[in-house]
Amino acid sequence: MARDGETVLEAARRAGVKIPSLCHHPDLMPSEGICRLCLIKTNNSKGLVPSCQTQVCPDLEVITDDEEIIKTRKVNLELLWADHAGKCAQCAKNGNCELQRLAQEYDVDEFKFVPRRNELLSDDELDMLKNNWIHTVYDDANPCIVRDSQYCVECRRCIRVCRDIQSIGALEMNYRSSMTNVGTPYEMPLDCIFCGQCANLCPTAAIVEKDETELLLKAINDPQIIVVAQVDSSIKFTFGELLGCQVGTNSIEKIVSFLKTLGCDYVFDSSALANLAVVEEAEEFIGRIRKGGPFPMLTSWCPSWIILIEKYYPELIANLSSCKSLQQMMGVLIKSYFAYRKKFNSKTIFSVSVTPCTSKKYEVRRSDHKSGDIADVDLVITVRELGRLLRRKVIDVEKLPQLDFDPALGISTGGGLLFDRSGSLAEETIKTVVERLTGKKISLIDWTDSKEKNVKEATVVLANQELKICIINGIKNTRPIIQKIISGKSDYHFIEVMACPDGCVGGGGQPLPSDRAVRLKRIEAIKAWEEKSRLKKANEDPVVNTLYHEFLFKPGSKIAKKYLHTSYVNRNEALLKTLYKP
Amino acid sequence: MGIQKILLAYEPVKINILPVLKEIKKIKEYIEREDLIELAKYFDLSVEELFSLASFFDELKTKPENKIIIRVCSGNACTNEGAALVRRQIELLLGIEQGNDAHPKFKLETMSCLGLCDCGPIVMVNDQIFERVLPSDVDDILSSYIK
Amino acid sequence: MKLITKNWGEIDPLNIKAYQNKSGYLALKKVLREMSPTDVIEEIKKSGLQGRGGAGCPVFLKWEAATAEKLQDKYYIVNLDESEPGTFKDRAIVDNNPHLIVEGMTIGAYAIGAKKGIIYINGHYVKQAEILRLVLEQAAEKEFIGKSIMGSAFDFEITVFSGAGAYICGEETALINSLEGKRGEPRLRPPYPAKEGLFGKPTVINNAETVANIPFIINRGAKCFNNIGSQKSPGTKLFCITGSVKNPGVHEAPLGTTPQELIFNSVYGGGLREGKDFLFAQIGGSSGRLINRSKLDYPLVFGDQDLPIGSGAIFVADTLCDIKEHLLSWAGFFHRESCGKCVPCREGTYRLWEIAKRLKNKDLRPRDSENIEDILWVLERSTFCPLGKFAATAWRDALAMFKDKIFK
């Protein structure tokens, strides 16, 4: 029944016995035991003990619910609710909040420790009531994540995921007593890589992805504006979770219908452009092979990874691929090629990208991602924001017509690959390179575990050299490899990095919960779909052929470089002036 | 900036972090971000960790305070000797209460026991300690700060 | 019977020779010349010495646990953080006979095999920290600390570490965290400090008063110490008597003495001041229990579930006191000193303080008295560390004893 070394909390949850907790999370072990909601009684100890700290052992008897335990949980929840009382209607997590769920389960009186309206003695007290936190911080200075400390329950999950899983450590516990608060030094605006893992784990609305749905609705409601949406790969398999479907349900038709019904004029599949991106990537890599460097070439699709290099390792900027991400390539082609084909004025096109990613909101604002005044992509909407639109718009998705994607860029729906199974970019690029340089077609790449944790590597053979490639998920896992590259000891030629744990399926904007078990199910579903689908190769892909024939001329051409490639900025000095990180 | 001199006297080991922060308090009113950046480099920690540490302790200040802080001990012994009346006198004289920012020059805050229970009521004005304070002494004490 | 306060006021605390003339450092000499570390632990075990910080745990237990660890690096820490309101006994030891602490801790370090010692002193005790540094210089000069102490193979270096203002740092694991450059938040136990303490090494933390008893035990023997005080708790205790008594201050008395004797006996508190009548006493500082006349004859010993001795502070309140002011004092103190880690303490002490302020201003709201009960409920049983329980203790007793006075 129970596994060796498990805690009572883990064992109980596996068995379906409900023990509440706010600070526990399966991806952050061992638990800290600070929320005190998981307290139980055992025959081995006096009084109440935290079940997240109690190891299972033979002959252990446990009481998970009795009058004393339930009253303790209820009062502790009511103490937390004193800061949240009356705020649900305006809250970003209304209906999707762990604290709310617990309040329902334990019949919490949210106004227990806060005077009720008819108990107030003057209007001044009403102001006190609304802002009954002495110390609140509201930080929306960055484009991706919003922090509002009045909702914080100090569970410390965000601190732990940022420090222990992502090795960034942008958030810490500050002050003492009732002023204790999760925050940044001197209340500076958050300045990190915006991967959004903190927002994924926050049980309340203290840290949420930035809500830009108003901008989408504004564009949709403007009759002069043509709204062209692109949908990122993994969302095909995660959007359904917002509708209550099982994890991994294929929801392509649902998302297209939803976006069209909302009012998007065109909905493209981002991965219809996948083969084009691979061709450009391969072209650049071949260029490096011929020149003898710089190696390793680092992929540039993950905006958080780029921010990490620009802020902390600017000496590796030369290693970054100059390719824009798939989203940006699609965006720029929508505004140029697609506009031209359809005879639209680019200025009237509103290009929106639906992603699982918070840092893409940062990417679209990069100054090098525009042509003159016209941004490649105007807006990034995360899947979770779509969830909020779903609730607000009260659209019954079940009744919608089954729709498929529009032909990407007016050409075809593609038959592109899915790039949210991490490693697929590296794989496809290497296969293309090997085929071009040796004529050999590789069907499978043999990935093995490297010595470093959570890094997979492989080797392919060219005519007169071997190419070593690796794929890394999660920023923490990149650090030892980066040290090797900087000290000249790395023998990799190509490295694909996705900042989020398990790749984009764990992105900062995916539906919640997004823990390891859920991410693995998503990956399984993607793999199963890939195996069943007939994916086109680059040379048979009409999107690739048409674009090069009609517009880009050839891979790596001047025009391809102008639209599909970019450059980077050293942000290290600016960072060191405000924050220092060893 | 002066904190370089402090660092010269302390090795970059973890046990010296709190002592160094206390030393900074001796030469500056509050610990600035630039100081934490220096310390982060010296002790191989991040600014986040250092700020988290500094903001925890009473004696370490991380923001400037342009008002004069008055504290009246509320421990058992001081309360017994009439500290509440002293506090009330200060509140009446200055028109302020603990926790509000109403007075342009003074601010009333709490304090914890200093271990001077045999000399109470204890009043602190900034870092200066006054012993055996009576309500009638309040006027004199405060006026020496008003000029 | 004076074990610790003997010679107080008679010898110049900063004169090491004066200390030596009164058998100072003879215990250390005896330990280094004639006793093995195991002998020392055995002697402390036989003496029955209990921790004087408040917990009252038998000292030899921690020492044995640390000795059992085979690691080379060990730490011996003296806890002089003394932030419990109404307690100033450790400060008094430094003011009057600081060498006692140095000698005692060196013996303790020898017993457990520690090479590094730290005196963690309350950040407010600036003068006392200076005294200790001076005293350590003197002791080093005479080779009572440092390398090859008194020509033996034992090395022991002591540093003074000043706290930065946090009552919670008096708790062992929080103290260790602050030494490691972290927030002074308590840690989960196990592992216990004797096994994994400062920087993961075996660490023994003893209160300053505990340590000050060690030279006597070595000099006069465990049996002699054991014969003083009571069977449950041998030895003496420094009681800090404050409040409406004639002779407030530090009074050393054998353990087992009753509050009646301590408050009213002319040798100690000397009774209530002119015109004042006894109402209640709080035993052990702001975290202690309240007693009324019915418990005055209760012997004060360690390990008593009904009346914990705590730090040994005794605050005496008279019938004219404003109990609501004291309730506010207790609530405000624990709110201020809560580390903020766990929900019941962080939020509970804050809401209790809000209620205490309303209570003081005669502005109680309809649900406040029920809420007091619920806050005390969670503080007593669901906090991460004992500070929660401490925050509830005095309120519980006050409500039981003075309900009418409070809610009239």
What's the SSE blueprint?
The complex is a heterotrimer of chains A (582), B (147) and C (408).
Chain A: H1 8-14, E1 39-42, E2 49-50, E3 62-63, H2 67-81, H3 98-105, H4 123-130, E4 138-139, E5 145-148, H5 157-165, E6 172-174, E7 181-183, H6 197-201, E8 207-209, H7 213-221, E9 226-231, H8 235-242, H9 252-262, E10 266-269, H10 274-291, E11 297-298, H11 303-312, H12 326-342, E12 349-355, H13 360-363, E13 370-371, E14 374-375, E15 379-382, H14 383-393, H15 424-438, E16 448-449, E17 455-461, E18 466-473, H16 479-486, E19 494-498, H17 516-532, H18 542-552, H19 558-564, H20 572-578
Helix pairs in contact in A: 8-9, 8-14, 10-15
Chain B: H1 3-8, H2 17-27, H3 33-43, H4 47-54, E1 68-72, H5 76-80, H6 83-94, E2 106-109, E3 123-125, E4 128-130, H7 138-146
Parallel strand pairs in B: 1-2
Antiparallel strand pairs in B: 1-3, 3-4
Chain C: H1 16-21, H2 26-34, H3 37-47, H4 59-68, E1 75-80, H5 89-96, H6 99-112, E2 116-121, H7 126-141, E3 157-162, H8 172-179, E4 203-207, H9 208-212, H10 214-220, H11 222-227, E5 236-243, E6 249-254, H12 259-264, E7 278-283, E8 289-291, E9 313-318, H13 323-337, H14 343-360, H15 368-381, H16 387-407
Parallel strand pairs in C: 1-2, 1-4, 2-3, 5-9
Antiparallel strand pairs in C: 5-6, 7-8, 7-9
Mean pLDDT of chain B: 93
Give the oligomer, counting copies of the same chain as homo and different chains as hetero. heterotrimer
CATH topology of the largest domain in chain C: Rossmann fold
* Structural domain tally of chain C: 3
Largest sheet of chain B: 4 strands, mixed
- Main sheet of chain C: which strands, in order across? 6-5-9-7-8
Instruction: Please tally the helical runs of chain B, counting DSSP H or I stretches of 4 or more residues.
Output: 7
Strand content of chain C: 5-15%
> Structural class given helices, strands, pairing of chain C?
alpha/beta
CATH homologous superfamily grouping of the largest domain in chain C? NADH-ubiquinone oxidoreductase 51kDa subunit
Biggest chain contact: B-C, 32 and 48 residues
Low-confidence stretches of chain B: none
Mean pLDDT of chain C: 95
**H/E element string of chain C?**
HHHHEHHEHEHEHHHEEHEEEHHHH
The low-confidence runs of chain C, each spanning 5 or more residues with pLDDT under 50, are none
